[in-house]
Amino acid sequence: MFNEGDKVSDFCLNGIDENSNEKVFCFKDLIKDKKNLILYFYPKDNTPGCTTEACDFRDNMNFILKYAAVAGVSPDSIASHKKFQERHSLNFPLLSDPEKKILTLFGAYGEKKMYGKTSMGVIRSTFLITPDMVLKKAWRNVKAKGHVDTILKYFENTD
Q: Which residue range or ranges hold the Thioredoxin domain (predicted)?
């Protein structure tokens, strides 16, 4: 599991860009204009919490892009991502990790508790990665509502 200050290994995942074009994304493709990358992991397309979080990123993209590019990752299929992106006019890439390899590398997949029950699943998490592939900031086990505001405040305080 990567921790703040760690060098992140390069990775590639299938996904869709902001225009729903399918392609393979590697880390270098996600870093635009040598900015940081916000890589956020979420459980499932078109669920209430994941929709709230994705739409918050979408609605704040003009401000966020001053500091970082954004990409979302879940185990969902490309077809599911396309429906999710289309339905909510998402303006950033969505990557598919059905084998949960990248999710696991970042510690965003594992044991979690919900309603008193323990199960394996995606742990909603967000990571800020520098262009030289260093994990600058990790937000782990976050709540969907208000999380993007936390990221915005972080950028305002580090400006």
A: 2-159
Comparing CA positions, the residue from 51, 38, 46, 52 lying closest to residue 145 is 52
115/136: higher pLDDT: 136
- Cβ-in-10-Å burial (0-12, 13-18, 19+) of 33 comes to exposed
Query: Considering the entire predicted model, what is its pTM?
Result: 0.94
Q: Region 62-72: what's the mean pLDDT?
A: 94
Confidence of residue 82 (pLDDT cuts 50, 70, 90): very high
Catalytic residue among 12, 26, 50, 55: 50
Whichever domain contains 149, its CATH number is: 3.40.30.10
